[in-house]
């Protein structure tokens, strides 16, 4: 993105884009969407453009059910403009979180717009608040608006606290800054609520109308209701503009709208307004430059792009982590930074690799353990075809066989792609005291494994530290056909020791192996209606392209850190029938299945207690989509797969909520 022009005069809060190609492409798109086209042709074109938008499918998931919003789907495809009457009440509630930012400067005071997005956290543009020193002189003014009788209210002023949080990025033109809890008159900031930011892209599609709440030209709060239409641009024509970061919508924007929230019909924030797109003359100059510019569209920063930036810097820029903590709290999630790591686990010592001969007769995971045969090769075949799986050194394949479980390693990330363990609940043998001795596995190249250089604090100067998170739980493979005998105990201890390999570890950024998660296997075994208590569990991280980086100064760094984990449990429920249940923990707000199930429908400024543990039960197909693994053999046995769509993904508050 081009640099924002600076001026020695009092800053104007309307900032034009500088791309001639962008202006030309916007004008072309605007003509195609002209309201002067015949109504039928316009409706037909809207539907075609909407359905061809790559975000169309997830956009449908952000809609409320027809019982709550009968015309929601028809509006996004241009076949209706009817709104439920509660649109106005919801808009009033959303607008309360929008404020005017008063910015003193050497040339006089100027103004911008901002809005609350988390607990005492304000979002605006970098060109509105560019430095902590500047922010320390500013005020956020709420309720500067006309009341129902047309009387102009006196604004309620809050000081900013850049010494607490100030995160800014000039390229995306965003600034987050903390706000005081009480106004100068003692009014609590919580009175104005907040606008939770949804991280997934797809909250608005081509042709859809959007609404902007703003303080134009320092004026009292105003609203442009569904006066702006999203424009679909051709990335090839919009040279130099990353359309994954920015969204464009046709409207006139007065000075002062920089930093305003851009809403869809569900009052979900889809963008942060930051620039206006000017019309250009045939000679390539800005039309009306120096007098009265002609504006043909606006440009906003996508909320999904803001999240991607913050996540990328989560572990390397402490302020990015603080901002994400507050955004996650606004979604009802417990911030990851609140999860402390045990000093005992952090001090686990490495040992030299064991000889490969130790596993000469070990078969690992047994595909015939349950009544339905479940082969591993078919599960990881899609990833193998893409070249993402680390091979064994002896050329025998890709599966690391341990006592009662197997690990398959992601070659790019150097952590497990997934693990598979068989559990025989009737033959469990406790291995005795835990021995935290970690090792690499000599059967696979060191370049595909982590080690103490990644986990131990003394090996780097990172502000964040991880523990080694077991993928196969310590006790799961600790069983033996020999039962509770000396020989059975010895076999159990081998299984326990096997779990302490780096090929079974992934960085644990939160306590996802807590009581509810850790006891899942025990709970499911109790659900078996057979004499033999048998369970197979598949586990692994969810790897995303934009996972945050960590440890650039550590050996092998920088590393990409997965923030969500999945588990599929397959129970031998009756002698001839299995049942499967799928779960995700960690950063659940990035899981598309949540939006399909309407878990986030009607987001408003509140905290949802049921979301706090970051545990969801979802469908096997949702896991497939998130991981690109093939679990199609399990779909017929999925406990949630037969539910209606709005119940296929559910929050798990305690272990008794699990359905299988």
Automatic annotation (TrEMBL):
**Gene3D superfamilies in the record:** Extracellular Endonuclease, subunit A (3.40.570.10), Trypsin-like serine proteases (2.40.10.10)
**Taking every annotated instance into account, which residue ranges of this chain make up the domain DNA/RNA non-specific endonuclease/pyrophosphatase/phosphodiesterase?**
401-638
Compositional bias (Polar residues): 1-21
Q: Supply the SUPFAM superfamilies for this chain.
A: His-Me finger endonucleases, Trypsin-like serine proteases
Which residues carry out catalysis? 470
Which residues of the sequence carry a binding annotation for Mg(2+)? 513
InterPro entries hit by this protein: DNA/RNA_non-sp_Endonuclease_sf, Endo_G_ENPP1-like_dom, ENPP1-3/EXOG-like_nuc-like, His-Me_finger_sf, Non-specific_endonuclease, Peptidase_S1_PA, Peptidase_S1_PA_chymotrypsin
Key words of the record: Endonuclease, Hydrolase, Metal-binding, Nuclease, Plasmid
**Span list, region Disordered:** 1-22
Ranges for domain ENPP1-3/EXOG-like endonuclease/phosphodiesterase come to 402-606
Provide any one GO MF term from the record.
metal ion binding
Name the domain of life this protein comes from.
Answer: Bacteria
Q: What is this protein called?
A: DNA/RNA non-specific endonuclease protein
